[in-house]
Amino acid sequence: MENKSHGGVDLSRRGFLKSAGGLAAGGALGQGATAAASAGLLGDGVERASGEVEIELTLNGTKRKVKVEPRTTLLSVLRHRVEPALTGTKEVCDMGSCGACTVHVDSKPAYACLLLAIDCQGKAITTIEGLAQGDTLHPVQQAFCEHDALMCGFCTPGFVMALSACLDAKPNATLDELKEACAGNVCRCGTYPHVFQAAVAAQRAKQAGGAR
Amino acid sequence: MSSKLPASPLEPRAQDGAPKKKKILVPKVENGHETMVEIEVDDVAGPEWGPREKLRLLNHEFVRVDAVDKVTGRARYTHDVRLAGMLYAKFVACPLPHAEVRVDLSAAKQVPGVVEARVVRDGEIRFVGQPVAVVAAKTREAAEDGARAIKLDLKPLPFAVTREQSLAANAPEVNRRGNASKPDERGDAAEVTAAFARCAAAIEATYSVPVQHHACLETHGAVVDVPSNDAATVYHSTQATFASAGEFKGPLKVSDVEVINEHMGGGFGSKFEAGVEGRVASELARDLKVPIHLMLSRKDEFLAAGNRSGCTATVKLGGTQDGKLVALSASVDRFGGLGGGSHAGLPYIYSVETSHRSMRSVYTHLDGNRAMRAPGHPQASFAMESALDELAYALGVDLVEIRKRNVGDVHAKQLERAAREIGWAEHPHKSKPDLSDAVVKVGIGFGLSQWGGGGHPECRVTVDIAPDGGVRATVGSQDLGTGVRTYVAAIVAEELGLPLGGVTARIGRTSYGPANASGGSVTTASLAPAVKHAAFNAKRSLLEALAKTLASAPDELVLDTQGVYDARSKRRLSWKDACATLPPAGISAVGEWQANLASNGVHGAQAAKVRVDTRTGEIQVVKMVCVQDCGLPLNRTGVRSQIFGGMIQALSYALFEERVIEPDLGLALNANFEDYKLAASREIPEMVAILDDDDTRGVIGMAEATIVPGHSAIANAIHNACGVRLRSMPLTCDKLLLGLAALKKG
């Protein structure tokens, strides 16, 4: 995926910061000390953090305080650091090659494993748990059920988030564009033909209903 | 089995009152490998599926009962289990194929957040990726820090990771009994040599397939709760929930283990054992007295959680002028790492008058293969279908005709159907490849499949009817994604005249009652009959109870979608009103396997159409067709999904998948989803799945058959398109370009 599809977040920093965090921890080993939590501005307008700091994230419309390290990914926050955990977002490759952790960041699809949690402050994050409105499924969710676009279901949240973002942004997407929208998602069970059928059916339902 | 059930007046009895017995053959599966065994069952009249045209739900298309849970993120997988105080455990693996390893845990134990670091195995390590240490920490990140802080003192030892290295004169000892197993020989070599003399033509070639990974999206692993009072609860991503419970007892030192497996993210044959991850998680939970979450990392999964063995097969095949197969000789080497590998044998599916084959395992310093969807069959298919195609071209016989000539009627009919659907009649290159100068060319190829898929008695299903009309079907079976939970509900709903939503299916934990391990496509044929039997018994109990209340007789009562009709009083009760007459405890009935409801042995025919670009070597599969039988399809949508899944996995195997181990250093080069490519949305062709409705048998599992021939059909289609025979998978553009260049040179 290109960087621009991640809501403008520069993904290349993530790998660096993740390993930098690891180095920091390694460096502290000899002293048996833990890195002191600190966060603040050094006068250049750039926020820096080390150790564990508390930040606020907007998850599915609710503001949540969460403790993170600078290297903590959004995926790790969703699955391991909020209570109750938002485990609908799946961890499969943890390196941006499978799409199973796709979420919406300011309505754009993004891999949660490639985003640092601290970079997500002030952005609206929607996970699979927040896609339906109450008991009303998003048309993509509804169509996935009706067209059997899932088997084991482990990739399903990622596909649903990728396709719903595409259709919400581009109601008249062609079939080719729909396939492109989920080209970064991997399904091992082989649900693709039904996924495509569901995507087209969801598009029709959205156009007919116009509600969403 | 049935002895546990209440005696029924409907069942004929032998003179002494015990049910009559009959002997039947059923498949038994161990670690995904199927053999047939004879068992004795009650010879009694039980439930029947009934005429297909009368079925209301089964053999129709319906929505999975757990679909909403899966599209909303509510479905809970083992990875998603969160227990209070839980620690995250992570393995450290040996990066070398063969080494003496010493593990230094001291630095890891000092890492903030790390609670425990342990040696899993030291001394001689025999495969790349073998877990040697484990860290348990309060967060995932701390576990990663701890794993990184573990120091491995590695003394490299001589290794063999390829066939050539393993068989070399000075090769290191991989296996104490030799680096190659004693060849398993079948048939008479001298007879076959004589038979080749009678052949109008014969071809000889070597075909090879690489090691393929299961690539389950949910990695292997377990979440183990703290044992107490001689009991423990384990959440395990497993295809064998009940066998797993037994395996966890030892390391947990308890006599009662409940395994919970509500949903699982794929297995494909690799998840039959608790494994080192299950054992280590158990020991940590037991010793630290905190719940442990130990799921393999993606890299661990690639290197230490099984694979489909590779093989090379040298095949000589000869036939008569009209394409009757007369002689086959084959020599096969299986590559299953430290395991034996699997291969279904040659000839495969097609009848050959005389054959001889020799097969052996060649061992390497790589993790052992495990069962993978139709273990051994795709390997056999590739060699057989390729050789058969080569012979057809050598003889100048139509590719469909030569296949029909050497198989039974069911396969022949299915082939005709697949040929029709792929457009064979209009295709100009039926017995010769397209050798024209066209730049972009289209070819068609075929392949056949077979599988057992029969059932056996192992499941016990309970159906409960409550006075409020609620119905619950309960059995411990796991659902790999095939739709087990859905057909459990559907079979009961069908029997009781209810809508699908009127039945709640509870599956996926050992306390729900025994069920088979899901391997060899045996689940449907093992479980569905037991569900039907439980529903049948529940219905009978309900009608007996109602007959008393209504002062009628069970025979006078008819249960259908409108409720219960009493022919004696001409009275009708809705389902709810009928259930309201039940005592507070409601009705509970048990069901077990019924031989008459299942059958065994499925067939399939597949066709592939590919487009090759002779300038770039690009290979694009444009259409795939599958004609598949499976006895009674329970959910036609679900069956179609399974068929597509098998075909897509075969397409992916054909074009992309290959474990790459660097031979000089023995390092794994593509143990991640970036470098190990799986087919995805851009590679999916037009796909047609046809259920063979001529099959009127009882239920049979079909999932494994669908993965058997797709890659063979694609390889054959490539040759048909341009005259290049790719005998080594994956079928990549570089190989095609080299083939085209060789063809041009003549």
Please describe what this structure looks like:
- The complex is a heterodimer of chains A (212) and B (746).
- Chain A has six helices and seven strands; from the N terminus they run H-E-E-E-E-H-E-E-E-H-H-H-H.
- Chain A has helices at residues 12-27, 74-81, 139-146, 156-169, 175-181, 192-209; strands at residues 38-41, 47-50, 53-59, 62-68, 102-105, 108-111, 124-126.
- Chain A has a five-stranded mixed β-sheet, with helices on both faces.
- The radius of gyration of chain A is 19 Å and the shape is elongated.
- Chain B is an alpha+beta fold.
- Chain B folds into three domains: 21-58 and 455-595, Aldehyde Oxidoreductase, domain 4 (2-Layer Sandwich), CATH 3.30.365.10; 78-157 and 220-295, Aldehyde oxidase/xanthine dehydrogenase, a/b hammerhead (Aldehyde Oxidoreductase, domain 3, Alpha-Beta Complex); 310-453 and 599-745, Aldehyde Oxidoreductase, domain 4 (2-Layer Sandwich), CATH 3.30.365.10.
- In chain B, the strands form seven sheets. Chain B has a seven-stranded mixed β-sheet, sandwiched between helices. In chain B, strands 9-17-16-15-10 form a five-stranded mixed β-sheet, sandwiched between helices. In chain B, strands 18-26-27-28 form a four-stranded mixed β-sheet, sandwiched between helices.
- In chain B, a hairpin with a 5-residue loop joins strand 19 (461-465) and strand 20.
- Chain B is globular and about 90 Å long.
- At the A-B interface, helix 1, helix 2, helix 3, helix 4 and helix 6 of A face helix 1, helix 3 and helix 15 of B.
Q: Taking strands numbered 1, 2, ... along the chain, how are they ordered across the largest sheet of chain B?
A: 5-7-3-14-11-12-13
CA-based gyration radius of chain A: 19 Å
Q: How many distinct domains of chain B?
A: 3
CATH topology of the largest domain in chain B: Aldehyde Oxidoreductase, domain 4
Q: How many β-strand runs of chain B?
A: 28
